[in-house]
Design a protein that fits this description.
By secondary structure, this protein is mainly beta. The protein is built from one helix and eight strands. It is a peripheral membrane protein.
Length: 124
């Protein structure tokens, strides 16, 4: 009679071993150390945290395309008026319309989506 057991140890080195036993004979088939992926906020769990149990047999999925980096790639929008508005796009993909004062020089970002606006410097 053969059995396959998954024996796990969540300690400082977080090692999980798959054990295969045939009539009382046990052999270690492989060692697997899960790699902790860090989120854009720097979140990492302690190696002894019980919440890591959900990643025993599957990897942790972290999107490498952080929104702050993607929005930084968007060029600022030039405006001729003193006040710009942003709704984050149209319909259900956007956010409530906000008005942004552009009187001071430089870029001014939307508080919801981070898009940047600036007033074009033009003389009459």
């Amino acid at each position: 009679m053969s059995k396959i057991n998954l024996i796990g140890r969540m300690s400082n080195n977080t090692v999980l071993k798959r054990m295969v036993s045939f009539n009382g004979f046990a052999k270690c088939m492989s060692d697997w150390v899960p790699k902790e992926k860090e989120t854009h906020t720097g979140q990492k769990w302690d190696e002894s945290d019980y919440r890591l149990a959900r990643f025993v047999d599957r990897p942790k999925h972290v999107n490498p395309n952080f929104a702050i980096n993607l929005i930084a790639e968007e060029p600022p929008v030039a405006c001729k008026e003193r006040v710009a508005w942003c709704d984050g796009g149209s319909g259900p993909t956007g956010h409530p319309k906000v008005y942004i004062n552009l009187d001071k020089p430089g870029n001014h970002s939307c508080g919801y989506c981070g898009l940047r606006f600036y007033k074009e410097d033009h003389h009459h």
